[in-house]
Amino acid sequence: MQLAAYGKSSSAAKKAAAPSGKRPKPLSNRERSxxxxxxxxxxxAEGVVEEIETRLSDATFQAENFDKLPAETARLDTAKxxxxxxxxxxxxxxxxxxxxxxxx
Length: 104
Prior knowledge:
Layout: H1 10-17, H2 29-57, H3 59-64, H4 69-100
Helix pairs in contact: 1-4, 2-4
C-alpha cells in the first residue's frame, strides 16, 4: 500500500524540529505537496479503515465470508498502519514548518 511509504519514526519529527544552529533548509517541493494533500489522504485512509471495520462487524458478512476474515483483518491492520504513518508524516511536516517559522 502506497500510504505506508510515509511511515517514519517520531524521532525523525523530533530531529527535524531540533535546532542545529544552522539556517534550516526550505521545504522541498515534495514536502510542500505533502502538506497540501495530507489531510485529504488521511481522510481517505480513515475511510478505508471505517469501511473495513463496518464490513467486519456485519454478521451477515462474517457468516458468508468466514474464510476471508483473516485476510480482511490483515487488510484492516495494514490500513490502520497507513493512517498512523500519515499522521506521523503530518507531524514531521508541521515540525519542519514550525522550524522555518511558517504559518498557515
